[in-house]
Design a protein that fits this description.
By secondary structure, this protein is α/β, with parallel strands linked by helices. The protein has 11 helices and 5 strands.
């Protein structure tokens, strides 16, 4: 019987796995309601331009100019950006699970995500994801986005890990199927508990969960803190007018 390869690397989505979705249709609906925008027009303009924005070919200023500020508004770009940014919330149980598994098994953690540059940078910084993640294969950085299979090939090249040693955690079924076509074992994420159980079945047991209190009492070690909002200096935020 063929032996299953040990898992040495996790590919993770950000939106829907580590954090809430950053700018999905529900967030856009809330924005349209809050700013009293015509929803259908805003959504149509969004879909005409968002692929280009997520691939890093448009700035936040250009995206907002096409989708919202193509006419005079009674609110500023800064107010709209602040609303966009406020839609991002952490999924602390998943962040903590991944951090524990990384520490126990020495896993390499690679994000494979469709996100626009300014929002991606904000989310990475605000929730301290760079303390957990080894590489960010974000669509805005690599100029290719899911469901293009090339983003997974690029992630494998950057991680320098064979596909058989990777487990991909994602909340979109189509993206799961594409990754599996490359030989990447995948988990369709719905909640932390079921994902944890599936990871355990693949050999990544979270036995350390019951020992957190004991570890937390040990002195002299820096605790890995991720997922806690850190707004940072105002100068680090995207420029909006």
């Amino acid at each position: 019987m063929k032996k299953t390869a040990a898992v040495t690397c996790l590919f993770l989505d950000i939106g829907g796995v580590l954090l809430t979705d950053g700018w999905d249709h529900r967030a856009r609906q809330r924005a349209a309601k809050h700013f009293k925008l015509e929803w259908a027009e805003m959504e149509n303009r969004h879909h005409l331009t968002f692929d280009t924005y997520e691939e890093g070919k448009l700035t936040l200023e250009e995206y907002l100019g096409r989708v919202v500020f193509y006419q005079k508004r009674p609110f500023t770009r800064a107010e709209f950006w602040n609303f966009m940014a406020a839609q991002s919330k952490p999924c602390p149980e998943m962040i903590e699970l991944v951090a524990r598994l990384k520490a126990r098994y020495g896993l390499k953690i690679v994000v494979v995500s469709n996100e626009a540059r300014e929002l991606n940078a904000y989310r990475i910084r605000t929730f301290r994801l760079s303390r957990l993640v080894d590489a960010f294969v974000s669509s805005c950085f690599v100029h290719v986005r899911k469901p293009d299979v090339d983003i997974y090939r690029l992630a494998l090249d950057l991680a320098q890990v064979p596909a058989r040693q990777v487990v991909y955690i994602e909340n979109t079924p189509m993206f799961i199927q594409i990754a599996e076509g490359l030989g990447i074992r995948s988990i369709l994420h719905t909640d932390c508990q079921s994902t944890g159980a599936k990871l355990a079945a693949l050999g990544l047991r979270d036995d350390a969960k019951d020992k957190r209190a004991k570890r937390g009492s040990a002195g002299g070690r820096e605790k890995l803190v991720v997922g806690v909002a850190d707004p940072g200096p105002a100068s680090a935020r995207p420029a909006t007018k």
